[in-house]
Specification:
The complex is a heterodimer of chains A (about 325) and B (about 425).
Chain A: H1 17-33, E1 48-53, H2 59-70, E2 74-79, H3 91-100, E3 105-110, H4 115-122, E4 126-132, H5 138-152, E5 159-163, H6 170-181, E6 185-189, E7 205-207, H7 210-213, E8 219-222, H8 238-245, H9 249-252, E9 260-262, H10 275-278, H11 285-303
Parallel strand pairs in A: 1-2, 1-3, 3-4, 5-6, 5-8, 6-7, 8-9
Helix pairs in contact in A: 1-5, 1-11, 2-11, 3-4, 5-6, 5-11
Chain B: E1 2-12, E2 17-26, E3 29-34, E4 43-46, E5 51-54, E6 56-61, H1 74-83, E7 86-91, H2 102-115, E8 119-124, H3 138-144, E9 148-150, H4 159-169, E10 175-178, H5 183-186, E11 191-192, H6 195-200, E12 204-205, H7 208-224, E13 228-230, H8 236-247, E14 252-256, H9 258-262, H10 285-296, E15 302-303, H11 312-315, H12 332-341, H13 348-363, E16 378-388, E17 407-417, E18 420-424, E19 427-428
Parallel strand pairs in B: 1-4, 1-5, 6-7, 7-8, 8-9, 9-10, 10-13, 11-12, 13-14, 14-15
Antiparallel strand pairs in B: 1-2, 2-3, 5-16, 16-17, 17-18, 18-19
Helix pairs in contact in B: 2-3, 4-7, 7-8, 8-10
Classes of the chains: A alpha/beta (about 325), B alpha/beta (about 425).
C-alpha cells in the first residue's frame, strides 16, 4: 500500500502537502545513499518499470533510468522511434498492450498535454508524468522544490522569479502552482507574447522587466528558450531576448549573495544565462540534476509501497 | 390513408395556433383541425398529453457519406435525426469526395431517396475541395438539389475569395453558410483561450478569432447583398457583431448549438475529455450567457446541432489529436425541452421558430405549417418522458456525445413525414 494519497502523479496537484513533504523527506535519504560508493538498493527488486519516452529526452529519461536501477527495478526503455506509435498505434492501444505485460509503473513523456491521463485510464499500474506538452513536468517540480529546500530550508516567504517562455513551459506549469501553494511569491518575468492567457491561474504575478525586479528575487528560475524557433515563440530575435532577460553578471550583482539561480536544462549559454554565471556558485543547475535522481527514486519507492523509514535501509 | 391525431396540444405560431385539437391527415395532407373529429376508416393516434409541432429541422449536420461511412451514413444519420424529432436536415459538404460538384450532390440525393428516414437537403461547398481558393459550380449544384453553400469546418480565409463567392451566390440567390475562424489567430488552438487553456496546457484560441472573421463577412454581406448565415456562434463578441449587423439591416442570420448554449470551458475541468473538444470550442460563462441572450432577443435565429459523428478511435486519443465535435441529432430537442422550455426560458412557440421555421427560412426552404391543406410533416413531443443520455442506445453509428450521463425530460415520441409515421412511440419505423 502506497503511503501517497494519489495512485498516479499526472500533475503536481495530485500530491497534497503531506505527499510533497514525504517525497522530499524520503529523497533526502536517497540523496545520502547516492553519495555512497555502492548506490544500489534491493528495494524494488522484481518490479518492472517502463520508461515510455515518446518525445526526445536525455536528462529526464536518464534520471528516471538511473533512479529505477539504483532501486534494483527492471527498467525497460521505450523511445518514440522504436514504439508502435510510429506504426500508427494509438496511445490507448499502447497503454493496454503494456498493461497486459503486467508492469508496475509507467513513466511517460509526451508532446501532447494530457497524454499521461490516457495511460492512467488504460493501465492498471502507477503512472508518472515525465513531461506532457506545455502542461506540466511534476517530477521536475519536486526536484526543484528539493533543491530550494536544501539551500534555504524553507520555501515559504521566498520570492521566485520564473523568467522566459512561461506560455510553452511545462516546467513553469507545475512549478508555479506548487511554489504558490507552499507559500512562495511567484513572479513571471517575460514579454506578454510568452505569457499564457491567465497567468494568475498558475499562481503568479507578472512583471515584464527583469531589471525592475531582480533585486527582490531570492530565486531566479530561468526557462530554456527554444533557440531554433525564437521568432515563433514571441521574440524578434535571440539577441533582443538576451538583452532583456539573460541572467548575466550585471544583473547578478543586484541579486543577494544567498540567491539561487536555477535552470531545468539544457542551458543556452548566452541566451538565458551568461556563460560565466552558469558556473557561479549561486547557480544550482547541477544540484538540480543530482536532486533529480534522489527525488525520482523517492517517488518510485513511495508509489510502489515503501515508507520514509525504509529508504534509509 | 387517413390518420387522426387525437387530443394533442397543437402549436404553430405562424397561424396563431395553440390549443387542444384533433388533426385529420389524409393522403399526407392536413385535412382538418378541430375538436371532436373522427374518421370513418384509418388510424387514430391518441395524443393526449403530447405536443404537436411543425416538423423540426436541423440545418447543420454531418452525415459523413460519401467517404466516411464508418462514422455515419445517410441511413444511420437520418435514423438519428428522426429519433431526435427532425423531419428534415441539411448536411454539410465535408465528405470524401467533397460535395463540391453536382455529381456528389446528386449521389447524396439519390442515396437519400433510397435509404433516408427523413428529408435530406445537401449543402454544397463554396470552394473546390474546401481549399478556400476556387469557386465551385454553384448553379450546377443548385440544379442537382443543393440548398446552400458552405466551407464548414475550415472557413474561407481569403477575403477576396469570400467576396467573389458572395457576389456570385447572390444572383441565384443562395445562402452562404460561414464557418467563422481566422486561422492566423487560431493557430493550433484547440480550446478557448483562457483559464482552462492555461490550466490544462492546451493551445488556446481567442473568441475574437471567430468575431474578426464574422465581422469581415458581415461587411462583405453588406457590400454584396448576398444572404449570409453564420454557423455555430460561440463568442459574445460575435453576438454583438450580429446584433449590430441586424440593426443595420444586413441580411445575415445565425445559429447556435445546444452544446454552446449549455456547456462552458469550465466543463473541461482537468479531465481532457475529448467529447468536449469542439470547433469552435466551448467558451466562457460570459460567452454562454450572451448566446442565450442573443437567442432570446432574435440576434441568433436558430438552433442547429452541428451533429459531428466520429468513430471511437478518433476521440479516444490525445486531446490535441482528437477529432472535433459531438453528436447532436438525438439530444438537441431533449436538451432544449429540459433546460429551456421546462424552465420557462422560452416556450414552444419559440422552439418552433428556432428549430423549425428559422432554419428553413435561412436556407430558403418553405416552412412547415399546421393548417388545412399543408403537407403533414409533424413532430410530436412527449414532454414527460425522462431518460439518461446513454451512448449504447443510439441510432447514430457514433458514440461521441458531450452529454453522456445527463438526465433529460421530454423527447420526440412520434415523427410524421408527408403523413407517414417515421417514428412511433419512440421507435424508428423500419
Amino acid at each position: 500500500m502506497s503511503p501517497l494519497s494519489s495512485k498516479h502523479l499526472l500533475e503536481i496537484e495530485d500530491f497534497n502537502h503531506d505527499d510533497i513533504e514525504l517525497v522530499l523527506e524520503t529523497a533526502r535519504s536517497f540523496a545520502e545513499i547516492n553519495e555512497r560508493s555502492i548506490k544500489k538498493l534491493p528495494t524494488l527488486r522484481g518490479r518492472t518499470i517502463i520508461n515510455l519516452f515518446l518525445e526526445p529526452s536525455t536528462r529526464t529519461r536518464t534520471s528516471f533510468e538511473i533512479a529505477s536501477k539504483r532501486l534494483s527495478a527492471d527498467a525497460v526503455n521505450m523511445a518514440g522511434s522504436s514504439s508502435s506509435t510510429v506504426k500508427g498505434e494509438s496511445l490507448k492501444d499502447t497503454a493496454q498492450t503494456l498493461s497486459a505485460m503486467s508492469c508496475d509503473l509507467a513513466i511517460i513523456r509526451h508532446k501532447f498535454s494530457g497524454a499521461p491521463r490516457i495511460l492512467a485510464e488504460n493501465m492498471d499500474c502507477h503512472v508518472i508524468n515525465g513531461g506532457d506538452g506545455i502542461h506540466q513536468h511534476p517530477t521536475q517540480t519536486l526536484l526543484d522544490l528539493f533543491t530550494i529546500r536544501e539551500r534555504f530550508g524553507s520555501i515559504k516567504g521566498k520570492t521566485v522569479g520564473i523568467v522566459g517562455d512561461i506560455l510553452h513551459s511545462r516546467v513553469a506549469g507545475s512549478l508555479a502552482p506548487a511554489l504558490n501553494s507552499l507559500g512562495a511569491r511567484v513572479v513571471f518575468i517575460a514579454p506578454p507574447t510568452m505569457l499564457p492567457a491567465r497567468p494568475d491561474i498558475l499562481g503568479g504575478e507578472v512583471v515584464y522587466s527583469l531589471d525592475d525586479i531582480v533585486s527582490e528575487l531570492d530565486i531566479v528560475y530561468l526557462l530554456r528558450i527554444q533557440a531554433e524557433r525564437a521568432s515563433k515563440i514571441g521574440v524578434p530575435s535571440l539577441r533582443e531576448y538576451s538583452n532583456l532577460y539573460c541572467m548575466d553578471a550585471r544583473r547578478a550583482k543586484k541579486l543577494s549573495k544567498n540567491a539561487l539561480i536555477m535552470h531545468p536544462g539544457p542551458m543556452n549559454r548566452g541566451v538565458e544565462i551568461s556563460s560565466d554565471l552558469a558556473d557561479d556558485p549561486r547557480t544550482a543547475v547541477l544540484d538540480q540534476v543530482t536532486s533529480g535522481v534522489a527525488v525520482r527514486m523517492a517517488i518510485m519507492y513511495l508509489m510502489l509501497g515503501g515508507d520514509s523509514n525504509g529508504a534509509t535501509a | 390513408m387517413a390518420l387522426l391525431l387525437k387530443g394533442g396540444r397543437v402549436i404553430d405560431p405562424k397561424v396563431d395556433l395553440d390549443g387542444i385539437y384533433d388533426v385529420v391527415i389524409r393522403d399526407g395532407v392536413i385535412q382538418e383541425i378541430g375538436s371532436d373529429l373522427s374518421i370513418p376508416k384509418g388510424v387514430t393516434c391518441d395524443c393526449t398529453g403530447r405536443i404537436i409541432l411543425p416538423g423540426l429541422f436541423d440545418m447543420h449536420t454531418h452525415l459523413r457519406e460519401p467517404g466516411y461511412e464508418y462514422k455515419e451514413d445517410i441511413e444511420s444519420g437520418t435514423r438519428a435525426a428522426v429519433k431526435g424529432g427532425f423531419t428534415g436536415i441539411a448536411c454539410m459538404p465535408n465528405t470524401h469526395p467533397v460535395a463540391d460538384n453536382s455529381s456528389v450532390i446528386d449521389f447524396i440525393k439519390k442515396k437519400a431517396a433510397q435509404s433516408a428516414h427523413c428529408r435530406v437537403y445537401p449543402i454544397g461547398a463554396i470552394t473546390k475541395n474546401l481549399e478556400g481558393e476556387d469557386l465551385t459550380e454553384m448553379a450546377d449544384m443548385l440544379s442537382a438539389g443543393a440548398v446552400a453553400f458552405s466551407d464548414d469546418g475550415k472557413g474561407i480565409q481569403n477575403a477576396g475569395v469570400m467576396r467573389q463567392a458572395m457576389d456570385y451566390a447572390k444572383m441565384f440567390p443562395a445562402t452562404l453558410i460561414a464557418h467563422e475562424e481566422d486561422k492566423s489567430l487560431v493557430g493550433s488552438g484547440c480550446v478557448n483561450e483562457g483559464p482552462i487553456s492555461t490550466k490544462l496546457g492546451l493551445p488556446g484560441q481567442p473568441g475574437i478569432s471567430e468575431t474578426i472573421a464574422a465581422q469581415r463577412d458581415i461587411e462583405l454581406c453588406d457590400l454584396t447583398g448576398c444572404r449570409l448565415h453564420v454557423a455555430h456562434v460561440s463568442s459574445y463578441h460575435t453576438v454583438d457583431a450580429l446584433r449590430d449587423a441586424k440593426k443595420r439591416g444586413i441580411p445575415v442570420t445565425a445559429e447556435v448549438t445546444p452544446h454552446h448554449l449549455l456547456l462552458t470551458e469550465d466543463d473541461l475541468s482537468t479531465t481532457y475529455d475529448t467529447n468536449l473538444k469542439m470547433n469552435p470550442p466551448l467558451r466562457s460563462k460570459e460567452d454562454r450567457a450572451a448566446l442565450i441572450e442573443g437567442l432570446l432577443d432574435g440576434t441568433i435565429d436558430c438552433i442547429a446541432s452541428d451533429h459531428a459523428p466520429h468513430a471511437p478511435h478518433e476521440k479516444e486519443r490525445e486531446f490535441e489529436r482528437a477529432a472535433y465535435g459531438t453528436t447532436g441529432l438525438e439530444t438537441s430537442l431533449s436538451l432544449m425541452l429540459t433546460h429551456f422550455v421546462a424552465k420557462g426560458i422560452f416556450g414552444y412557440g419559440t422552439l418552433v421558430e428556432k428549430m423549425s421555421d428559422a432554419p428553413r427560412r435561412a436556407l430558403g426552404i418553405d416552412t412547415v405549417t399546421i393548417e388545412k391543406g399543408s403537407c403533414a410533416d409533424l413532430t410530436i413531443i412527449d414532454p414527460n418522458y425522462s431518460f439518461i443520455v446513454d451512448t449504447d442506445e443510439r441510432e447514430s453509428k457514433a458514440r461521441n456525445s458531450a452529454f453522456v450521463g445527463w438526465e433529460l425530460t421530454g423527447r420526440a415520441s412520434d415523427v410524421l413525414i408527408a403523413g407517414y409515421f417515421k417514428m412511433r412511440d419512440g421507435e424508428v419505423v423500419e
